[in-house]
Amino acid sequence: MVLVTGGAGFIGSHIVDALREGGHDVRVLDLADGDDVRDPDVVERALDGVDAVCHQAAMVGLGVDLEDITDYVGHNDVGTAVLLRAISRGTAVRRVVLASSMVVYGEGRYRCAEHGVVAPGPRAVEDLDAGRYEPPCPRCGRPLAPEAVGEDAPVDPRNVYAATKLHQEHLAWSFARETGIPVTALRYHNVYGPRMPRDTPYAGVAAIFASALAAGRAPQVLEDGGQLRDFVHVRDVARANVLALTTERPYGGALNVCSGRRRSIADMAWALHAAAGDGAPAPEIVGGYRLGDVRHVFADPARATEVLEFTAREDFVAGMGEMAGAMT
Question: Which end of the chain is more exposed for a tag (fewer CB within 10 A), N or C?
Fold first, then answer.
């Protein structure tokens, strides 16, 4: 029996579908059903007879402002702590899969022509206000070349959500050392696909753009649209979870879950526009920025391919078309 927390949500519901299609027994614990992962009694009952846990329940997105900080910590960190404590109290659970995120990296990997791989700090507000969006080399100030980030890269969360996702990983590693139960932390990159939440500031950029198009509005692309990301379809993410839950030897550690292809935010906006059909308003590059955003972060998929035999399959253009259709 697999317990999927957050199993009624965007990603969790696809994981539940994939597990059931594979013949696995599944139990769902989700706040939408009145079951809070922060409630010890609820969690204890949910774990009865369970031998694997897929922990997806979380508050996601960049948030609105620091008024959200206690909600993020409560849902993500406290909820994870309650779950791990309950598992440690003599349950039958023998592996845990944790939904982590690429946001733990902060900025991705960068190379300076003179100084090699460097880690730029947060972008200066005065640079962002002036439309200078690329982070410079912290040593010489010259332009940098972005590269794919691997799991061994330093972590550097840049907003509250990112900080809570990294803390979830830290709690998981402590739990694994104390109990001997392996935890696989899947660092999702930009997930898109059907069932994405819409019309909420906590949604991902793909959902925000798709919601705008569905309402007849032009997607508003911040900065210059050149921000690089890795967009991965939710069905690929679900399949990675199933592999992590069922592989013969559980993997203890973090894995990127990504497509292995880098694309700009503008690329994604235009792909959605094309999928929306004739008459859809074209994306607009509006400048501006969100202070907690990073410039470039895209992934190296090699480790997940090696240890899980996971490779993304879904076609980007077809996936954007499917999502655009689901949002109308």
Answer: C
Taking the CB of residue 105, how many other CB atoms lie within 10 A of it? Answer: 25
Q: 229, 261 in Cβ contact below 8 A?
A: no
Query: Exactly one of 105, 133, 161, 188 is catalytic; which is it?
Result: 161
Task: For residues 186 and 102, give the distance between their C-alpha atoms in angstroms, rounded to a whole number.
Answer: 9
Query: Can 161 be counted among the known catalytic residues?
Result: yes
Specify the pLDDT at position 90. Answer: 87
Q: Is the pTM of this model over 0.85?
A: yes
Compute, in degrees rounded to 10, the torsion defined by CA atoms 272, 6, 3, 88.
Answer: 130
Q: What is the pLDDT of residues 260-303, one digit of tens each?
A: 999 999 999 999 999 998 889 999 999 999 988 999 999 999 99
80: Cβ–Cβ under 8 A, 6 or more apart, which residues? 37, 55, 98, 168, 171, 172
Longest pairwise C-alpha distance within the chain? 59
Q: What is the DSSP letter of 154?
A: P
Distance set, CA 113 to CA 14, 132, 139, 227, 262 (Å): 43, 20, 11, 20, 21
